[in-house]
Fold each of these.
Amino acid sequence: MIELKQLSKQVNSGRNQLTILHPLDLVIPAGQFAAILGPSGSGKSTLLGLMAGLDTPTTGEVILAGTAITRLGEDALAAFRSRNIGFVFQAFHLVPTATAVENVQIPMEITGRRDAKKRAKALLESVGLSERAHHYPAQLSGGEQQRVAIARAFANEPPILLADEPTGNLDYANGLRVFELLRRLNRETGTTLVMVTHNEELARTADRAITLRDGRVVLDNPKVSIEPFPPG
C-alpha cells in the first residue's frame, strides 16, 4: 500500500517560493493500478519522484508497505528501494554496453540474487523478447527497449512499480503494447502500479484515475468522466 500524508513540495525561485505540489493526502491500496493525469507542470512527475524517495518533500510523509521512507537515511532508503520499488522511465535508461539480459540482471546482482541470469531470461520471455536477449539497446527498437526496462523493473519482484510516462517516447502501437504489458503484469503479480501519463484513453482502463492540476488533486477515480486538459 502507498500512503501519502500532507505531502507537499516547494522550491526556491529567485526570491520567491514556488509550490509544485500542495499538501495532499492519498492512499493507493496494494495491487491497484492507478493512473496519474494532468497537463505539463501539474506536479505528476514530482509526485511520482516523491513516492519513490528520489526527491525530498517539503512537508509530509510517504509510507510504502508500512515503512515511512521519508524517515529513512540515505543508505536505508537505497536498500528499501532496491527491494520494494521498480521504476520505469520514459527514456528507458538502459546500460548501452550491456545486452538486454544483462540489463535485466543488474538489479538482481546488486541484491545478490543467485538465480539472476535464469530469472532475467524468464522475464525477457514474459515480455516477448527471449530471442533478443543478447542484443544491445542500440540494436533494439524503442518499444523493445521499453519492454526490457519493464522486465528489469520487475526483476526483484517489487510490491510497487512506478512508471513515469512509459509510453511517451513510443508510437501509438508500441505505446499500447507497453501499456497492455504493464497491465498484464500488474494483474498477474499483484504489484501495485502507479503510472503517470498524458494519455486519457489509456488512463480510462486503469483501476483508478487521479487528475492533478496546479499541484492539486482535482479529480480522483472518475473513470467515466476524466476531466479533459490541454496538451503540453
Amino acid sequence: MKFLDLAKVYIRSGAGGNGCISFRREKFIEYGGPDGGNGGRGGDVIAEAVEGLNTLIDFRYQQHFFAQNGQGGMGRLSTGRDGDDIILRVPVGTEILEDDEETVIADLTEVGQRVVLAKGGNGGFGNAHFKTSTNQAPRRANPGQDCVERTIWLRLKLLADVGLLGLPNAGKSTFLAATSNARPKVADYPFTTLHPNLGVVGVDGVEFVVADIPGLIEGASEGRGLGDLFLGHVERCAVLLHLIDATANEVAEDYQTIVNEIEAYGEGLADKPRVTVLNKVDALDEELREMQREFLEEVTGGLVMFMSGASGEGVTEVLRALRAQIDEDRLRRKKEEGGDEEDAPWHP
C-alpha cells in the first residue's frame, strides 16, 4: 500500500428541502386549510477516525465528498426525507486543516472520534406552519437552507511512542527490523527508507510503538532531502531515539547536524527527551568504541549508549531506556490531567 500523509479534499453538505405550499382538497370539505409539509434536512459531512488505516492514499483517488440534499415537503403535512450524511473515514492521528493549511479544524487522535466538517441545511417550513387564527390560508413557505461548501486538507501524523532520528544509513531500519515484526527495506546505501514505517517493540513484557522516518541531512529544515517531509510523524512521540553511526569519522558533527535540524523545524521536537545511541558498534574494537563515545559525550553532555542492530548487542538496554522515558511521559500526562491524586476512601 502506498503511503500518503497529505491530501486536499472538497466537501459539500446537503441543502435543506423546500417547504411545500398545499391546501387540503377533498369531497364535501369546503375549506380544507393548508397542509403543506416542511422540507427535510440536508446531510452533514463528517470525519471519523477508524482503525486499520495508516495512510491517506484513498483520498488521492476521490477528493470530492457531497452529502445528500433534503427532500422537499409535500401535501397532507408530509415532511420531506432528510438527506444522508457522508462520512470521511481517516486514520487515527489525522489533523484536519482549513484551506490555508495552517488553521486546525480538528485533531482526531482516538478511534471513533468524530467531527462535523460541514453541517447540512435545515429544511424550510411548509405553509401549514404559518397558519394562525387571523391567517388561516397562508400562501407562503420557506426555502431550505443552502449547503456549505469548503476545501480542507487532511494531514496524517502517525501515533507512536518512539521516533527514530539519524542521518541516512545510520541503521534506523535495521533496528526496527531487529526489534519488531516490521519489515522495512534495509540496504547499504543512503535513503533506503522513503516513507515512515511503524513497528511494535516489546521489552520486559511491555510493548510500545516505534516510528522510523527517512534520514535527515543538513539543510533538511529548508527542504533538502526527504526527512523534513515526515518530521511531523514524530511530533507526538514521547521520546526520540537518536542513532549515530559509530563507524563515521565525525560522530560529534553527525549528532549536531540532526540537533540543528530539529531545532530549526520547531514544534517542540528539540525539547523532547532523547536517548542517544552509537549504533553499529559491532564493527569497532573496544578502544575505538570508547574514543567515539568520549567525542560524542563532550557534545551531548549526557550518557551515550552502545548498540548494534545487526548483532543485537545493547538492544535490550536501549529498549529499557526508551520504556523508562515513555513511563515518565505517561505519568506526567496523568498528573496534568489531574489523575495523580490518591483515591479518597469510600464512605456510604
Amino acid sequence: MASELEALLDQIAKEGRPGLKNNIAISWIRYEKTNPEACSGIGAGWSEEKLLYPASIVKLIYAIAIEAWLQKDILTDSVELQQALKDMVKESSNDATSLIMDLLTGTTSGPSLHGERWHAWQKQRQQVNKWLQSLNWPELAGVNCCQKTWNDGPFGRERDFYGATNTNRNSLTTAATARLLEAVMTNDLVSPPACKRVQKLLSRSLDVFQREANPENQIDGFLGEGLPKGTRFWSKAGLMSQARHDAAWFCSPKANPMLLVVFTQGRERAKDASLLPSIARELSKLNVQMS
C-alpha cells in the first residue's frame, strides 16, 4: 500500500502539480469487509505525522467532544445544541462552531483581557486539548484544538490567543484525524450510541441532484466526488485560502470499507478542485483490486 500510494502521488504530481509531495499528507486504511469493528485495519501514509492547520476538519473533533461532555454531564442537551452540532458538521457553519466552543470550554469571545482574567480564560480554553491528551493515543501527541473557526478572522481576545505569529493556531495530523474518525466509525469512542450520533452527522449523499441543490455540499472538489455510484459515505471537509482537506470513511460496492484522510496546504492546492477526487478515485480502484 505504501509503494502504491507513493507511485500515485508521483503520477498526480506529473499532471501539473510540481512539489505536490511536499505539501500533502495522507492516511489511507482498509478494513475487513465483514466486520471493520473487529480490527484496526491495514494502511499506509504519507507525511501523516506532519502537523498542519486543519481548517474545518477540527469540527469533527469538537462534535466528538460534545458527546464526551454530554456523557459526563458537563453539558445539558438542548434543541439549540443539537441544531448547532448539525450546522457545524453538515453545513460547516463557523457561527455554530463558535457556540460549540463556548459550550465546550465555558469561554466567550470579546475584547482583549488582561491579568488574572486573561490567564484563567486561556487555561479554560484548553479543555478540548486536555480531553484529547487524556485518551493517551500516540497519534494525538502535539495536536492543538483550542480555536474557533472564522469567516474573516479573529478579533479581540481571540486574536490575542493565536499569538503574535499564529503559533497557537489549531493543528492536526492526518494520522490523528484518522484515529479519531476510525474510533467513531467503529463505535469505539465515548460510547456506541454517541458514535452513532456523530456518524449520522457525517453521513453524506453522493447523489448528483442533491449536490446540485447545495453548492456547499462538501462532496464536489473533495474525496466524495471521485467515488463510484452506490458508495456509502461519511466525511468532514475543510477549505480555506491555504488548505483543502477531507476526512472520509466509505464503503464502495464490491470493496472493503476504507478510511482516507487527505490534507493539502498552499494556495495552489487550495484552488485545486480536482486533486482530492483524483486521489479518492485511484485509491478506490486499488481497494477493489485488493478486496
Amino acid sequence: MTHDTGSRFSTLTFGRDVAAPPAVLWQAWTAPAARAVWASPSPAVTVAFVEADTRVGGREVSLCKVEGQPDIHCACGWLVLDPGRRSVNSEVVSVAGVPQSAALVTADLTGTDGGSRLAVTVQLASLAADMEAGYREGFGAGLDNLAGVAERTMILERVIAAPRALVWGAWMNAETLPRWWGPEGFSCRTKRIDLRTDGEWVFDMIGPDGTVFPNHHLYHEVRPDERIRYSLLWGENGPKHADAWASFEEHEGKTRVILGMVFSTAAEFQTAKGFGAIELGQQTLGKLETMVLGR
C-alpha cells in the first residue's frame, strides 16, 4: 500500500483465499442478493440497496445506516465485468450530499487448488475527509464476510433455447410455477401465492414417497425479465435457511438462468450438498426447460 498524505491519494490492496471455485465467488461478489448478505462490515451497520444494475454501464446505489449517524450514500458504477476473472467499478461515497471520497475498485479472481484467490485494489481519493482508515476497515471486514458467504453459496445454471420472456413467464406465473418447481417426482401444493415484490409463496413440496416438506418463499425484489430475490423459510414464517436469487440473461434467442442460494450457515450448505441439492436443483431447472419448450 502507498499513501500520499499531501494529496490524500491512497492505493489499498486486499487479498483473500476462498474455499469456493471462481464461478461461485464471482456470483457472491457481483450478484445483488449475495452482496446484500455480506456488504455490512459489522452487525451495527445496516446496508440497504436502493438500486442494483449489475452490467457494464449499470449502477448500484446503497445506503449504510448506523443508529444516531447520518446515512452514508455509496454510488457504484460498473466499468468492467469479465465473469469469473475481473471486475472494475467506480465508487463515490457521500454524506448529506457532500462527497467524501471517490475510488476505482479492481477485483481479480484466480483459481487455486483449494478454490479461489481474490485480489482487490482500491485507488482512493479522499475528498471531504481522510477516508483511508475507514476504507481499510470497511473493505477488510466486508471481504472477510464475502469469503464466508462464498463458501456457503450454491450456484445452478442452465441455458434454455427460448427467449427470456418465455422463461420468465413460466417462472413468475402463479399457475405454472407450482407445476414444475421441485426435483423429478416431486409436486407442489400451494396455500398462498403472490409473485411480486413483497409477495410470498406458501406451499408444501411433496416427495415421491408422500413426505411433506413445508416451504415459504418471501419475495424481496421482482425485476421483470431480469431477476428475482427472495428468502427460503422452513415452513410458513419458519426460520430462514437461505437467501436466494434467480437471474435471466438473453443471448441470441436463448436464456441463461442462474439460480443462486446463500445458505444461512455452513452446516446447512454442507447438509444440502450432501443430500444432492445440486443434482436435484438441476432436475428442477430441467423441468422448467421442459415446460418452456413444451416437451
